[in-house]
Amino acid sequence: MLLDGQQVTISIKEKDGIIKGSPDALLPVLEITEAQMEQKTPAGQAVPGTEKTVFTGIVKNNIVQIPIHLRPKSEEELKQWQDKISKGKEDGTYTYTFGGANNITNETQKASTAKVILENAQKGNAKNPKIENGKTSSEEEIKKVLVIKNYQAGDTITFKLLKKVPEFLYLHAKAQGQKQHDKKFLNKVGAYFEIGGGKCSCNRDLTINEFKEILKHLRESEKLEINNIWNPQYTSGASPSDTSIASTLDQLNKIMKKYEINSCIRKVYFIAECYHETDRLRSTKEYNNSHTSAYDPYRGRGIIQLTHKEAYERYSFYRNQNTLVTNPDELAKNLDLAFDSAGWYFKQGKLLSVGNSWSPNGTDRQKYNLSNRSYPKSNYDTKFTNTDGSIVKRYGSIDLNLVADNDDIVVISYLINGGNKGLEERKKYVTELKKVPVFICDKNKTQPSSGDWHDPVDHPMSTNFYQNGNFDSTSKIWGLFGDDIRREVSRKHTGLDLFAERGKPIYACVDGTVYNRRWHSGYGNTITIKVKDPQAFMARKRTDYTRKTTREMEKGAGWSESGDLFLFYAHLHSVKDFTFGQEVKCGQQLGTTGRSGVTGGTCAPHLHFEIFCRYAMGSGTSYRINPAYFVNYKFYDEQSESERNAQTNEKNKGKINEVNGAGKLNETNLN
Prior knowledge:
Blueprint: E1 7-14, E2 29-31, H1 34-37, E3 50-52, E4 55-58, E5 68-69, H2 75-87, E6 89-97, E7 102-103, H3 107-123, E8 135-136, H4 139-145, E9 150-151, E10 156-163, E11 167-176, E12 180-185, E13 193-195, H5 208-219, H6 245-258, H7 264-277, H8 292-295, H9 309-319, H10 323-326, H11 330-333, H12 335-349, E14 357-358, H13 362-368, E15 375-376, E16 378-385, E17 391-397, H14 400-405, H15 409-417, H16 423-434, E18 482-486, E19 491-493, E20 496-499, E21 505-507, E22 512-520, E23 524-531, H17 534-539, E24 566-575, E25 583-584, E26 589-593, E27 606-612, E28 624-625, H18 641-651
Antiparallel strand pairs: 1-4, 1-11, 2-3, 2-5, 6-10, 7-9, 8-10, 11-12, 11-13, 14-15, 16-17, 18-19, 20-27, 21-26, 22-23, 22-25, 23-24, 24-26, 24-27, 27-28
Helix pairs in contact: 3-4, 6-12, 7-16, 15-16
C-alpha cells in the first residue's frame, strides 16, 4: 500500500483513434458523482458532469475510484462519436467506374448518384468489383468525391473504404510515491475496454454490466431503481429466496442456453415477456385480483407465470418432481425453478392439441389482428388431469423462439396470455430492449411478419452434409446457388437446399397462383407458384446478404425482373391437391418435405427451392436468382449446436430411399 493517500492522475486513451483520428488519443469524457450514476437526465436539461481528459483521485486500499459517464458533454459530439464507431476506421480505397453518361447538376442528384454507386459497389453490379467482405463505405464518403459535372462512360472516382472494428480504450495513470509511477493499464489484446465492437449477445452469456444496462433501459422510463429487483408491490406477491442481481443473471444465462434462447431477437422477446409477467422483475407470484381465487392454489408463479393445475402437472412431469403439484409455492421461492419453468414454457410449454403445425384460427386472427403465419408443432409425453377428469398423456406445443425469430410481438403475446391483455406494455419493453447495444445485431433482421412474406420452411437453414452423409468444408456450401458450387462433379446448382426432415410443412412465400404440380426427373414431386406481385416481391430482396463462398452467384444468365416470377419447391413427400390457377395466400401450406426424386436415397433430406423468371427445367442457373437473397436462412457458421445436431441425427439414420414420396405425381403439366 505504498501509494495509499497519494494522488493519481488518470487519462482514457483510444487504441486506434476511431473517434479522435489518431492512435493513443486522449478521450474527453464526463466526471460525475456517484449519485449521478443512477440518474437519468431530464428532457431538455444539460447532461450532468464535467468534461475532462485528465482525472485525479486519491488512492485508498490500492484503489482509485472516479465515477465517469463515457460520453462527451455535447449531444452533437456524442452523435458524431456514435457515427464514427458505427462506420469504423478507414481501410483502403475503392475505385468506381461509370458504365455510362451520368450528368450531375445539383446536390440532390449528387446524393441520389452516391446511393446508386454505393449499392453497385456493395453488390458488384454495373461491371464494378464487389467491395471486399468486412468492408463498406457510405453515401457521405462518396458524395465527398463526386462533383457537379457530366460523367462519361469510363470515368472513375475513388472513395474511402471503412471497416467496422471495435473501439478499444485503455487507461494511462501517473502517481508519485517513493518514485514516479507512469503506467498503462488494459492496453493489451484481450484486456482492452471495448465499446461499439459489434459483440452482440448471440450464442453467449450476458455479462453483469450488460444486464445492468438492460435493467437501466427498462426501468428508467418508469422511474424504478435499477438495483431494486424482487421487491413485490403487494403482500400477495412473492420473491425468490435469492434476490441478488448476480444470481438472477446466472439463472437467466443458464436457462437461455438450455432452451435455445440463443440469439439477440430471442433474448429480447424472452426478457420482455419475463419482465412483464413478473411486474418488472418484482414478484414471482401473481398478485390477488378478480380471477386468482378461481385459479388457487395454482395461480401464476415463476418468471413466465405458470397458471392452472394442468400447467403445474405438465411441468412437474417434465422435471420428474411431484412436489411442484403438492407445494406450488416452490415455483415462486426457488430461483432455479422460477427461471427453468419460464424457459420450459417458452420452448415447449404452451398447451396445444397434438398435431404437425399451428396457426391462429380465423376468429382470433381477425379479433386480435394476428398474422397468418404457420408454425411447426412438436408433441410431448405428459400426464395431467383434464377439466373433465380424464387423464391426458400427450400434448402439442410450438417453440416460441420461432415466433421471436419473426419479430411478432402480437402472436407471441397472444400465445402466452391468451389474448391481447398487456400487449402495449409488452411492445414497449421489446422496443426498449432493441435499443440496448448488446442486442443490436445485423444477423437478426427478419422478414416482414405482417403476412406479406413467409419463409418456404420453418426455421430455414442450409444443408451441411452430402447426400451420402459425408461432411467437409465443401459439403457446407453444396446446397447453395451457383454454376461453380459443385465443380468437383462438374454440376451447377440451381436453387437453395434447406434442411428439412421428412413431413415438415412447406409454405407459399407470398400470394400467388398455382402454376404447376407435377413430377420432374431429379426433382421428384414439385409444386410451382406464380407470384402475384413480382414488383413487390423484388422489393423484398435482401441488401444485407453476404455470399458464403466465391463459388456462389447472385443470378444466372437471362434473369429478368420485368416479367413473371415463379417459386419452385422440389423433393416433396406430398403436395396438396391444387388446380391450375388456384389462388394461394402467403403462409398457406402447400405440402410436406421429403426425399422424392433422389435416386438411391439420401442422408441429407431437404427442400430444394428455386426462384425463376421462366419455367425452363434443365437450363441450369439460367433465368434464376439466388433464393438466399430472399430467404433469411442460417448457414453452417450461424447454426446453433442443436441445429447442427438435428442434421447429424438425420444423417446417422443412413441413406433412406423414398424416391416416390407419399405417391408419385403425374409427369405432365397442370395446364
